[in-house]
Design a protein that fits this description.
The complex is a heterodimer of chains A (about 725) and B (about 80). By secondary structure, chain A is α/β, with parallel strands linked by helices. Chain A is built from 31 helices and ten strands. In chain A, strands 2-3-4-1-5-6-8 form a seven-stranded mixed beta sheet, with helices on both faces. In chain A, strands 7-9 form a two-stranded antiparallel ribbon. The two termini of chain B are about 15 Å apart. Chain B has one domain: Ferrous iron transport protein A (FeoA) (SH3 type barrels), CATH 2.30.30.90. Classes of the chains: A alpha/beta (about 725), B alpha+beta (about 80).
């Protein structure tokens, strides 16, 4: 087939080692995206194998192909609609019985299937031997044995898959699952009916359609109805009749009986192909778990790991952060000397380099956080976190697994929201994404430090802690509110596999980490760039400001004045005079900057929106600072610095002094901190929300909700406080 | 007797899996079928969820979900 690559789809249970095999096969040539319309991750990789081009798609890990979860629907639709040339089912050999459930379902579909018995080493260690030839014979499929994490059997897998794709033989129909007499009779009856009535317009093969209709499969019902048109009524009538007959016979819904029978069929296969040796080794994984989820030490160990994660992220991340900061500083210094004075230079140095630089310094932290998340996931500890935390998270209406993303939110909201991908249910994922921004990220801390440091002195630590608690409390309330309104409905079943602990593969960890970091760089790079240009433009224009005094003339006057005095003094005390000159020039400079900030577009905007913020006790300067905070929260501090026209040296002290001298009170400072905590997350986070929910609607909702909440809370704090005579 | 009443370390055979559509289907698909033997490995430190060994693998479910499964303890 020249031109079109061979399409290979990887299917399999979660924890079957599917991703490891995908990584082995495609290496770094993979593309991560989303399946259209849903937030399920889609991974693809194009490779060449012996001159043949292969397109490998990693389907979501599922236990079954019934359309209950989005993952299952995505996986099944891909097979049914995209017709991959071969579907490779990755089977966990140490968990054969359950893995074969999906395998038998794939076998019922009209596609070429290759079974891969993965983790054969683990199975052998557990005393399980599998007769692969017998399995191949019994189900009439090709079977390959592999050890994914040792990169064994990959060649054979590809070779067999390519051979299968290129063979012209039809999919073998004979050796598929056989059901008991009554069910078979119903299937055959419906199948005949379908063939007679509408074989040409049926979207899928008749036997499979018959089985799915009997199982009351909604997706197949809809598609069949659309395909067969008016003859549908007649068909569905027969389906109902047959279902009732079976219900009478088994006192149970047909889909339940059929699930049962598939397992029965599997039990028969297992008996033939699996040889259990009596020699059983010590189950290391189970022993590890007895400690890690122990009643007494389970939580302390868990807390220690989390603490270590943050500690390492921020201590190890500090060095590369300094390098990046130094690098950004060098670039801007270099541009400063190389470029001619002018507006273009200002844009480049003060706008783009400063703006992008302020976000890119977070890259090391983000990369490290992702590394730890990958480590948690690949070792199998992530499901234990969910196991430990589920009771608590369930109170908010969330799954135990939501804990990790929310916790990461204290570091940075961007990776936190991306980490919500580990959640299987879409509702849980959405809810987690919506409340994660209330976890106060590290970038908001500098703002608190300045405000609390200025107005609360020795109590600053407690005040900041209370802001963090406020965020947690509001996330809980929001969670409960949304669970009972917007994202209503029964919780997804918690039923979760606890896979054995595994030694993670370095390569997998790296690929995981790099994928996510790349996404951060790509998605954020563009937006941040535009954002910085916008902020710079607003604060740099209009160019010709109508100043109240002629600063240039005044500057020359001061300089001349001091020069004259220095000349008069003839050396004695000239140092002191020089310093005095510098300081009064600096003061003048500050006054000019202050005025220019006030008269720039930014200042005008601040004054225009001032009335919105004044009930919160926030003046126009802080309003502007809050707006610029949309690009990155820590910018709030630097904008305040600019607006209060603080010089470059001892910036934070000078800013604190300036704030003290302003109209701000401890109460309004606290209201502003609450506002910073809650209002629209930074642009990088907002873009991530858009990307991860796959919808601008949810993004806008999140922005509107958080900002409205921020205003309400800040209003309540400020006005409530005033009622009680504070501030 | 239902599954959530079992103590740590007890064995039992599943008699019936109840519950709503999605939960029931999921349980059955993961191999918690009538007649299947299970072993209660442990309860989480906060007593919920619980961990079972079924068909040679470990699975956890919430106590509330487990209460939908009736079992017969094996002495």
């Amino acid at each position: 087939m020249p031109g079109r690559p061979i399409s290979i789809a990887l299917a399999g249970n979660p924890n079957s080692g599917k991703t490891t095999i995908f990584n082995n096969l495609t290496g770094t040539r993979q593309k991560v995206g989303n399946w259209p319309g849903v937030t399920v991750e889609k991974k693809e990789g194009k490779i060449r194998y012996q001159g043949v081009e292969l397109l490998i798609t990693d389907l979501p890990g599922t236990y079954s192909l019934t359309p209950f979860s989005i993952e299952e629907i995505v996986a099944r639709n891909f097979i049914l609609d995209e017709h991959p040339d071969v579907v490779v089912d990755i089977i966990d050999s140490s968990n054969l019985e359950r893995s074969l459930y999906l395998a038998t379902q794939l076998r019922e579909l009209d596609c070429k299937v290759l079974f891969v018995l993965n983790m054969t080493d683990l199975a052998r260690n557990r005393g399980i031997k599998i007769d692969t030839e017998k399995l191949s014979e019994l189900l009439d499929v090709s079977v390959v044995a592999t050890v994914g994490n040792k990169n064994q059997g990959m060649d054979q897998l590809l070779e067999t898959a390519v051979r299968l794709a290129e063979s012209n033989t039809d999919v073998a129909q004979k050796r598929r699952v056989r059901y008991s007499k009554d069910i078979e009779a119903a299937i055959v009856e419906l199948q005949r009916h379908l063939e007679a009535q509408c074989a040409d317009t049926l979207p899928y093969n008749p036997r499979w359609t018959a089985i799915k209709l009997l199982e009351d499969d909604n997706v197949v019902k809809e598609r069949t109805a659309a395909g067969v048109g008016e003859r549908g009524a007649d068909i569905f009538e027969q389906v109902d009749r047959l279902r009732e007959r079976l219900m009478d016979r088994y006192a149970e819904e047909p889909e339940i009986v059929m699930t049962d029978e598939r397992y029965g069929f599997i039990a028969g296969i297992i008996k033939e192909i699996q040889i259990l040796s009596t020699r059983r080794r010590v189950d290391v994984s189970r022993n590890i778990d007895l400690v890690l989820t122990n009643r007494f030490v389970g939580f302390p160990i868990f807390l220690f790991f989390i603490w270590a994660m943050f500690q390492l992220t921020f201590t190890l991340g500090d060095y590369p952060m300094q390098w990046i900061e130094a690098g950004v500083g060098m670039v801007s210094a270099l541009l400063d000397t190389l470029l001619p004075q002018g507006i273009f230079k200002n844009l480049l140095v003060d706008g783009i380099v400063a703006g992008v630089g302020s976000v890119i310094v977070f890259l090391p932290n983000i990369v490290l956080l992702f590394f730890f998340i990958a480590l948690f996931e690949d070792t199998g500890y992530m499901s234990r976190c969910a196991f430990l935390m589920d009771k608590i998270m369930h109170l908010i209406g969330l799954h135990g697994k939501s804990f990790i993303p929310m916790l990461m939110g204290f570091g940075c909201n961007v990776p936190a929201i991306m980490a919500a991908r580990t959640l299987e249910s879409e509702k849980d994922r959405l809810l987690t994404i919506l409340i994660t921004p209330f976890m106060s990220c590290a970038a908001r801390l500098p703002v608190y430090i300045v405000l609390a440091g200025t107005f609360f002195g020795a109590k600053a630590g407690t005040v900041i802690f209370s802001i963090y608690l406020l965020g947690i409390a509001l996330s809980i309330l929001t969670g409960r509110l949304f669970r009972s309104t917007l994202l209503r409905g029964a919780d997804a079943p918690f039923v979760m596999e606890l896979p054995p602990y595994r030694v993670p593969m370095f390569k997998s960890l790296m690929i995981h980490m790099w994928d996510r970091s790349k996404m951060f760089l790509k998605k954020m790079g563009g937006v941040i760039l535009i954002g910085s240009v916008v902020v710079w433009t607003l604060s740099a224009f209009p160019r010709d400001i109508d100043y109240s005094i002629d600063y240039e003339q005044k500057r020359q006057q001061i300089a001349a004045d001091y020069d004259r005095r220095m000349a008069e003094a003839q050396g004695t005390g000239s140092e002191a005079l020089k310093e005095e000159k510098e300081s009064s020039l600096g003061q003048l400079e500050r006054r000019q900057r202050f005025e220019r900030a006030e008269k720039s577009y930014m200042g005008k905007i601040g004054k225009a929106i001032g009335p919105i913020f004044s009930p919160l006790g926030i003046d126009w300067r802080s309003s502007v600072a809050l707006i610029t905070g949309f690009f990155a929260k820590e910018i709030v501090v630097s904008t305040l610095g600019v607006l209060y026209a603080v010089g470059d040296e001892n910036e934070s002290e000078a800013l604190q002094q300036a704030l003290q001298d302003s109209d701000m009170t401890p109460l309004s400072a606290y209201a502003m901190m609450a506002f910073v905590l809650l209002y629209v997350p930074c642009i990088a986070t907002v873009t991530t929300i858009r990307h991860e929910t796959g919808s601008s609607g949810w993004m806008l909702f999140s922005v509107a909700y958080s900002t409205a909440l921020a205003w309400t809370v800040a209003f309540a704090i400020y006005q409530g406080g005033r009622l009680f005579g504070l501030g | 007797m239902n599954l959530s009443q079992l103590r740590e370390g007890q064995r039992a055979t599943i008699l019936r899996v109840g519950g709503n559509g999605a939960l029931r289907r999921r349980l059955l698909e993961m191999g918690l079928l009538k007649g299947t033997d299970l072993y209660v490995e442990k309860y989480a430190p906060l007593k919920d969820p619980m961990e079972l060994i079924v068909k040679g693998y470990h699975v956890s479910l919430r106590v509330q979900e487990a209460s939908q499964i009736s079992v017969e303890p094996i002495e």
